[in-house]
Design brief:
333 residues, Restriction Endonuclease, 5-stranded mixed β-sheet, 2 domains, alpha/beta, globular
């Protein structure tokens, strides 16, 4: 839900993203979950208060953050005048990013991804174009008292059909908007399972001391693959499956005997696509009895006929420690 400037509490402003996929650009980016997570987390967490953030200040923060994370800065080519011309702001693993916050023509900006295709050192498989939505520009100008101009998300997406014959690079258009974060105390029992799941993943990040790629979505052989989270540990990816005992009246679906094999098969498809070692880890949050856990898991690879080629493990956390994490989290915000 997009807030309006008059009704937003400036102490709780946060960025979010609206996306538009051109030539399946977003689906292709979803197939690179770690890179997508890196892009989104950098865009959404500038590290400074949004209420004082200028457009140019935000761009400066992004340049420093992406370079620190190993992105090539402004890959360039010589233009007709013999001068170096940047074709994008950042490039990494054949994914390019352009920041659309200056008052330039979006068509010209987008065509630079096509130009980059001609040169081995600038060619990309996916282009990401970042701008702000029209409401976001208006709200930020009112809140900060600073200029937030440039092509809007709506302008950029409407311009794409006019480029269809010229632009064959898959693109993911990302549009910033702002919203008011909840200021009330968090009660997991009053939240939806999906909302609690996101908080559980933040809890796990704090426990592990490592970033988790959340809400991973990719496409393999024409089939959508979804995971709650993926934790990368060296040459191994740990697939995280969060199960909540008190979030709803339904029994945890992936721990039912008729669901486990289907889920393990999805994990196997991920392993074959990513070509990495894989471990499936169930995160049990809440009141799971010892008898239930022993009946389901027993020894990894045995219970319910789990395939021996997939390593399966679990960990258990109480709602008390989860709620303690939420209280500490609120105290630091």
């Amino acid at each position: 839900m997009h807030g309006t400037a008059g009704g937003i509490s400036r102490e709780k402003l946060k960025f979010a993203l609206e996306t538009y996929s051109y030539r399946s650009g977003e689906l292709l980016l979803n197939a690179r979950p770690r890179l997508k997570q890196e892009i989104e987390s950098t865009l959404l967490n500038p590290g400074v208060s949004i209420e004082t953030l200028s457009r140019d200040g935000y761009v400066e923060v992004l340049h420093a953050a992406f370079v620190q994370k190993g992105w090539e800065h402004r890959p360039s080519v010589f233009n007709a005048d013999g001068n170096l011309e940047p074709l994008m702001d950042f490039r990494k693993e054949r994914v390019g990013i352009r920041l659309g916050f200056q008052p330039n023509s979006p068509q010209i900006e987008l065509m630079k991804f096509q130009t980059a295709k001609r040169y081995p050192h600038t060619a990309v498989d996916i282009g990401v174009y970042v701008t702000a939505t029209a409401p976001c520009q208006k709200e930020l100008a009112e809140i900060t008292g600073k200029i937030w101009s440039g092509p809007t998300f709506q302008m950029v997406t409407k311009s794409l059909p006019t480029l269809a014959r010229l632009l064959d690079i898959p693109l993911c258009i990302m549009g910033l908007y702002i919203y008011e974060a909840p200021i009330q105390a968090i009660n997991p029992l009053e939240m939806s399972p999906e909302a609690v799941k996101q908080l559980v993943l933040e809890f796990l990040e704090a426990r592990y001391g490592k970033r988790i790629d959340k809400n991973v979505h990719m496409v393999h052989a024409g089939r959508d693959i979804y995971f709650d989270g993926v934790l990368s540990l060296g040459d191994k990816d740990v697939i995280l499956a969060v199960e909540l005992s008190r979030s709803s009246g339904n029994f945890p679906s992936r721990l039912l005997s008729d669901s486990i094999l289907r889920f393990v098969e999805i994990v196997r498809q991920y392993r074959n696509m990513a070509k990495r070692n894989v471990c499936l880890r169930f995160v049990l949050m809440g009141a799971f009895s010892k008898t239930f856990i022993e009946d389901v898991f027993g020894e990894a690879g045995i219970a319910y006929g789990w395939a021996e080629d997939i390593e399966v493990e679990y960990e258990v956390h109480s709602f008390e420690e989860f709620e303690a994490f939420l209280r500490e989290r609120e105290n630091h915000e």
